[in-house]
Structures are given as structure tokens and as C-alpha cells.
Amino acid sequence: xxxxxxxxxxxxxxxxxxxxxxxxxxxxxxxxxxxxxxxxxxxxxxxxxxxxxxxxxxxxxxxxxxxxxxxxxxxxxxxxxxxxxxxxxxxxxxxxxxxxxxxxxxxxxxxxxxxxxxxxxxxxxxxxxxxxxxxxxxxxxxxxxxxxxxxxxxxxxxxxxxxxxxxxxxxxxxxxxxxxxxxxxxxxxxxxxxxxxxxxxxxxxxxxxxxxxxxxxxxxxxxxxxxxxxxxxxxxxxxxxxxxxxxxxxxxxxxxxxxxxxxxxxxxxxxxxxxxxxxxxxxxxxxxxxxxxxxxxxxxxxxxxxxxxxxxxxxxxxxxxxxxxxxxxxxxxxxxxxxxxxxxxxxxxxxxxxxxxxxxxxxxxxxxxxxxxxxxxxxxxxxxxxxxxxxxxxxxxxxxxxxxxxxxxxxxxxxxxxxxxxxxxxxxxxxxxxxxxxxxxxxxxxxxxxxxxxxxxxxxxxxxxxxxxxxxxxxxxxxxxxxxxxxxxxxxxxxxxxxxxxxxxxxxxxxxxxxxxxxxxxxxxxxxxxxxxxxxxxxxxxxxxxxxxxxxxxxxxxxxxxxxxxxxxxxxxxxxxxxxxxxxxxxxxxxxxxxxxxxxxxxxxxxxxxxxxxxxxxxxxxxxxxxxxxxxxxxxxxxxxxxxxxxxxxxxxxxxxxxxxxxxxxxxxxxxxxxxxxxxxxxxxxxxxxxxxxxxxxxxxxxxxxxxxxxxxxxxxxxxxxxxxxxxxxxxxxxxxxxxxxxxxxxxxxxxxxxxxxxxxxxxxxxxxxxxxxxxxxxxxxxxxxxxxxxxxxxxxxxxxxx
Amino acid sequence: xxxxxxxxxxxxxxxxxxxxxxxxxxxxxxxxxxxxxxxxxxxxxxxxxxxxxxxxxxxxxxxxxxxxxxxxxxxxxxxxxxxxxxxxxxxxxxxxxxxxxxxxxxxxxxxxxxxxxxxxxxxxxxxxxxxxxxxxxxxxxxxxxxxxxxxxxxxxxxxxxxxxxxxxxxxxxxxxxxxxxxxxxxxxxxxxxxxxxxxxxxxxxxxxxxxxxxxxxxxxxxxxxxxxxxxxxxxxxxxxxxxxxxxxxxxxxxxxxxxxx
Lengths: 803, 261
Known about the structure:
The complex is a heterodimer.
Chain A (H helix, E strand, L loop, with lengths): L6 H17 L18 E6 L8 E7 L2 E7 L12 H4 L15 E4 L2 E4 L2 H14 L4 E5 L5 H15 L4 E3 L6 H11 L9 H5 L2 E5 L3 H4 L1 H12 L5 E6 L1 E2 L1 H4 L3 E4 L5 H14 L5 H7 E5 L15 E3 L1 H8 L4 H8 L3 H12 L5 E5 L1 H4 L4 H14 L9 E4 L6 H9 L4 E2 L3 E2 L3 H11 L14 H8 L11 E5 L3 H4 L3 H4 L10 E6 L4 H5 L2 E4 L8 E4 L4 E5 L12 H14 L29 H4 L4 H9 L13 H6 L3 E2 L3 E2 L5 E2 L31 E5 L15 E6 L15 H6 L5 E3 L1 H7 L6 E5 L4 E8 L4 E2 L3 E5 L27 E7 L2
Parallel strand pairs in A: 6-7, 6-18, 8-9, 8-14, 9-11, 12-26, 14-15, 18-19, 19-20, 27-32, 28-30
Antiparallel strand pairs in A: 1-2, 2-3, 4-5, 4-20, 10-31, 12-13, 16-17, 21-22, 22-23, 24-25, 27-33, 28-32, 29-30, 29-33
Chain B lengths: L6 H7 L7 H9 L47 H4 L1 H20 L19 H8 L3 E3 L2 E3 L63 H4 L55
Antiparallel strand pairs in B: 1-2
């Protein structure tokens, strides 16, 4: 009863009780020290549940419930500050419609079932056809969950049909880092925000998407420091309001802008010749020397002269024509990059990643930083920001994508497979050599009749909401409704657009209802302990995977045993006695999260992403890898990778060393990639560009934030932002409901003119958080050929008045 | 309605939250005797407002809040001047309700009870830089160092019922007692019952455009923290999970790295 008592009711009762106490001559004087208030309130640390910034919060718990949140003053990321989502993150646990019991669809209706029946149902589906089973995970998976899922699939079932939603969110950043440095994740850190003179937002509305980091930047001005903010954007946003230079560009024009900077650096001879000669090679796309292998993201060498010729056409005037940014502003940018005395920090998120040339623009931005030597010094960095709390820590580092193995290994590489099999202690040959399906392909196959090539028949989705977040939803997911032989399992905490399609729903524990670790955008691995119990029968996602694995073991399904004949998740006490972690009653008898992390740690050294022992993270507000033990026994984190002054893996005297270099000579690659036009552009029938994105108050599909009154009231529904000129021309008034229509689908939305953001004429913007108005029915599912990340930022739509 | 105080209410907030303000005043006016056994030294040390509407028995000659006099014979404030105490108490009850209406829990950034029509920081400053009272509306002075990205933490909470299409939330937030801080002894300066992080500008709540019932009688003194210290439980001082924390984020140049084979 107490658990469901709501605040208003509670206050009413309290008021009554206290007023009565007063009547009886009760406490009307000031309390003295030692009173009861706050005595049972406990404060503990956790990373925030929402975005990839990785703020730490202090979680106040009392009587088994979260009752308050503070910014963690000991945390370097946020220094005590949070954004409005972070301050209200505790409320995400208490939406009234939490899923609390497993439910199975029987005759079209979802009926409650027992956990035993649920686990059994999944195991039977998998055992019947292990190779057509796929697991779709998330950048909100904890490190342990991702590691367990990856092991279960790749080292257990011998299947690479596992992918995750970071495919939709940052895989172009990954390919950019791989193509340039030969190893994933940013060389720089958030400290660059404190040290830079110029911050460039590449299609990045940081004031709303990474507000705490944006404040870290702009608050420097309040302290009298000067920081110049350059806002490259396709629409005016809150970031623009605090920018020194608002440079509006045509969608897809970013490729031309970056090439324009390279052009000026070379023409003005202001590039960093010494740095380039010592530390860089040049690359372009091209057929391999054998003339059979198609162009790949590792490219072919080109000389400096060839590179100079390639960027020659990108004069400021040409760039103005392609991008819409005035030539003199391109010159200003070229001049800034040409100056050694300025520190320049480039920052981006979905604008550069959700891009059909995402790998190319990522490479180009790294390229101009390398070419100008704005690299590897505090304040000089090109840093991608992530959208999910553990897209880096779990998906990128643990490798829960269809082509990856933990620690930056590839499934297609025989040596990497052998290493993983040894570390996982499974028989040689267990891991399949062929990559599985990437996200879009996985869902297309699931969404296609089995006899027509739809060779994914059972799909298990954990901690994500693809039925709202996949592009072009009808083609990629919603057909499933009419396909009788497909089976969708969804582990989640609330009813979502995805649970609506589910055949089996598993109620999950979330955030501080379980132990966990996340890894944020700046390579910082963060830890928390369980603080409160999950509601009803909700259980950890990790336990769900482990329980299914054990059920398969009992059924004698191949692959659930290692070389030693023991279960792949065999867990024992010090005495050697096995702990039955597949039994929920015993799951917390040991710290499974710690066991999985310690099993994962040896994987991380290959690509020099070394992690410290679990217990070090218990003490810390996160540590940035590589974390290397020092002579005094302490564990030291690394802030600037590849820089001798800070990175212990750089050889003495080298200054910079790209020790995973693609060209195998410790040099980074400066890429040339041409400007190209996107696959779909506005035309007579569909005259507007559509861009989609987030708002500050809501996080991704809104399944958590729409259940938090303070956030929901601030932005209760989606809308379409329009330029005033366009609206006037079409006779559309503010808040009028119009139809936004593309070749793929349509939805109705109220128009917001002169709103929070202001698109240029010919463009509209729609946020995607609102499950009642799914903009992804309209978006395009074209993707980057190397990262396979779709472009949610550009497609052609028309705006139709109703009535 | 006759209902004895119950353990739930008393334990949850120390029995200190009172919201039925009207009732409280009326009940208090009856002048019931002080019989709180839980807080043995529960004697008011708070100065009595000068503008008390009624003055039954005159206060005793001895000032109960003299320093260095830890055990004076005092007449409890509520017996000395029940109406004044009742007024102050009613004000505090009202103030805490006002404050709570805009916050999910004590310590949450307040939501904005008016439309945000202009995001320019100067627009926020126009009213909130030094505080403003117009009619029955008060714009509080910013409680923290002026930051420029206001809407990062403070979002619009429109008063109309937009919760209809929302599933609801059963979160019960931590609440302030609204009663002022604890004291070591009668007459000691009260300890702040809240954190001072992001609340460094005391005048925001305790000054002219602050809250009724929370203004001191010594507003002219500006060095608040000379006498009033924050309560440690809020100050994030203790190690989490009982483990001593490591310092975070080296400031200054990083120490030379070493590799141990």
C-alpha cells in the first residue's frame, strides 16, 4: 500500500496527522539536533541513466525508494551540475505503468505468465532454430549485460546475429575513428572543453543534447575567459543563441565545408608541415591493388600532392555554392585552423553520424585537425559525443555488434576469433567467421516472410524501443504484425511501441534497481551498485540472458558448455561450490556484474583500452581508459591518447604515436572524401527537407521521460518546426495541425513557427520522442555504406494543410 | 476529523510538515500546552516577529537567545506569543507549499510557472537577477552564480492539465520540513537544513523577494555563513557505499605516465 501511495495523498494524510498532533499540543517548536529527519536518508553515487555525457548523480534513498537526486560534486564530468533530465532521473523508476510481470500473447491478448514459463518459451524458440534467432541490444545495456549477451550469442550459440541500437546512433563515429586512427573512440576528453579557445559545433545542438557539457564551455565566459563558439547548423537552435558565429548550411553541405578548410590550409601554406610529415599519411577511397576488392573504409594511399590537388576545387566560393555558408566565413575558419596559437575543439553528435556520408564527414573533420596540427594537446581535439550512456562502454568496447568481438576484435579475423575463444574458454571454431546482420538488415529480415528470405524468425530486444526509433518503420518493422511465424521478445520497463508488437514481454529492472557499469563519451568507465529493489517481478536483463542460457544447457542445446565441460556462465564461490545464478533467488548471492567485468578485462589490453580492476571503479567517479597501474600500485587514467605527455603506451621521444595505425607506421590518416549529394533531396512533389532529433527535456523515445511530470509538462507532444516565410506562403498558422508526408509515410503534427528552433526556409524539424506521433513512419532508411548508420536528418517531405 | 498522529507520517518527515495551515492556526490558537516528549529541548529560539498582531502576556525580561547561556530558564515561544508563532508557522506552511509545487523533491531545480517566450538569458535576468514582486507574483532572485543556459535545468511547467495522456508517476520526493534548521541548544544559530551548493545566494529565499516566514530579523547582516552552517548530510561529504573515494579529475598537468610490465 505504501509503495503506491501518491504524493498528493501522502501530503494530505501527513497534513491531517500533523494538524491533529498540533491539536493535541504537539511539536510546534524548532527541532534540535538529533531529530529524526533525514536519519534514514542515504546518499550514494551512480552515473545518470540518460545520455552519453556520463554525469554522476547522488541518489537519495529512503525506505527502499529513491526520494531525491543531486548533482555529484565530486564528479569531474559535471562538477555537481545536472540538466533537468538528470535532476529528475529518479522519477524514471516510478511511472505508474511499470511492467511487473512477464506476459505472453495468447490468442492475440497479452496474459501474465510465470518467469519459468517465459524462460522456457524463449529457450524452446531458440532451440528449435538457433541460427534464425537474433538479439538486439542497446547502448543502455550495462557493460555486464552486453558482455553476457555477446558471449551467449557468439561464444555460446556460435551466432553473430547480435547488433545494437548504437548502430543508429554512433557507428559513423566508430568508422571515422577506425579509418583515421585504426582504433575506435576519441583521443581527447572533456577537459578540452575547459582549455579550448574555439569550439566548433558540427551540426550539434549541444545546449539541448549535452547541456552539462555545453555549460562547462559557456560558463567559462562567466568566469571572464574567452571562448569562441562556432555553430555550424541547418537551423537556429538554443546553441546558436550563445554562439559567436551562426553559420547556417545546406543539409549535407558539411562535406564541402571541411574540404574548404583543407583547401585554405594548403593554399595559405598554413598547415602544420612538421606534424603532417612526422605523423600523418594521406588516404582516399579506391580499388585495392589486386583490383578485385571493392573500396573499403581503410582506403588506398595517396601522396600529399594528390591530396592537395583533390581539395584544390574547394575554394571558399565553391564551398559557399555547395554549402550556403558565406565564403568569408569559410576563410575565417581556414584562418583559425591555420593559427597555432589557438586551441580548437570540434564537437559533434548525430548531425555528422546520422548521415549517408557519415564515415566521410567524420574522417574529414579528423583530417583538418591533423592537417593543422590541432591534435593531442589540451584544448586541441576532435571529439564525438554519444547519445546513450554506454554506447561506448558496452557496445563499442564490449563489441556487441554483428561484426565485433570484445576489445576491438573482428569476427572476420581468424586470429581475433582464436583469442576470444581462448579467453572465453570455449572450443576452437565456436565463433562463426561470418558477421551477422547489421541493424537495418536484421529488422528487414525479421519483417519479411520467412519463405521469402526473412531468415530471422525470433528476435529478442532488450533496453531499446526499435518500433519507434528505426527509420522507415513500416518497411523495417511494422509488417511483423501480419507475419504469424515471427516471434518478438521484448525486455523493457514500460509499455512502448515495441512491446505493442511483442509476443512475449519480460519486465526488467532498471538503473539503480541493479548493479551496473556504463562507459561514457570520453572513455570513462563508471560503476554503481543496486540501491533499491525492482518493482513486482521485474528482474535484471542480465539475469534473463543467463537464465535462458541455463535452460538451453538443461535442454542439451549445443554451445552452452566451455572447453572444461562447464556451463559458459558457470559461477562458483571461493570454495568451489557453484552458485546457481540462473535461479533469481540466488542471483545476488555473488556480484555477477563484477564476475563478468573481471572476465571481460583481459580482452581490453589488445587495443590498449586497458581497464582497472572492478574494485577501483567502486571508489571512483569513473576512470578513463587506458587505465594503467603505476609503480606505487595505484591505477592511473589517461586523458590524451596518442600523446607522449599523457599516454603511457607512446614510446619515449615520439611526441605522438598512433600505435594502431592503419598504415602500420604509427601514423594517422588524413582522408580526402569528396562532397556528394544525399540520396533523397527535395523536389517538386516533396519540397521540404525533414530533419529529426531530440529536445532537451526528453530522452530518445521518451519511454522514461514522458512518465516524468516535470519533463512531460515542459514538452508534452511532438510538433513540426517551420520557417515563418514558408508558413506564410502556404497560409499555415502557428499551432495549426498539418500532415507531414514523405514517399514512405505520413503523420499529423501541430506547427510551431518561431519556436525553440528555427529552420531555414525549405526545411522542417520534428522531434522523435513522442510515441503518439511517430515521425519515423516518414524518415528514410538509406544508410552510410561503411557504418550502416541510417540518415535521420535528411529526407524529402511535403507539408499538407488539412481540411 | 480526529486522527492521532501515526507512525508513517511522523517517521517520514519527523512530524514536521504541516500543510493544513488554516487548521493549524485555529488549533494552535487554543494555546495547548507543550508536551512533546520526543524532542526534549524543543524550545523555540527563533526571534518573534515584531509585527505580531496581538500581544497577550509580555515576553520575559530575559532574552532567551543570549549566547553563552546554554540553559536559560525560558518561556517557550509558543506560550510567550502564540499568535506570532502561529502566523510565522502559517507563513512557513504556505511557503513550503509554494516551493514544493514547483519541485519534484527538495533540491530539484524549480520548474518555471510561466511560459518561456524568449530564451535570451537577459530576459530571465530582467526579473530574476535581483528579484521582483508584482501583485501576488514574485520572481525570486537567482539562488546561484549566474549561469547562462537557464533552460538546461529550469523548464516550463504550464499550469494547464497536460497530464491527461501521461501514465502518471508514483514518485514521492524528499520534502523539506520548512521548519528551519536544527539548533545545538536554545538560542544557538540554526544550522541550515539544506545544501548550499547552487544555493549560495541566501537572499534568494530569505531576502526581500524571498518567502514569508523565512526572512530573518537581521537582514542587514550579509555574512550569513558566519553563524549558519549547512547540514552535513546534504553535503556529499561521506564516502559512497562505505568506500573511501578516489579524487576525480586531475587538475593541472597530468603526472608523467609510467608503464609497469
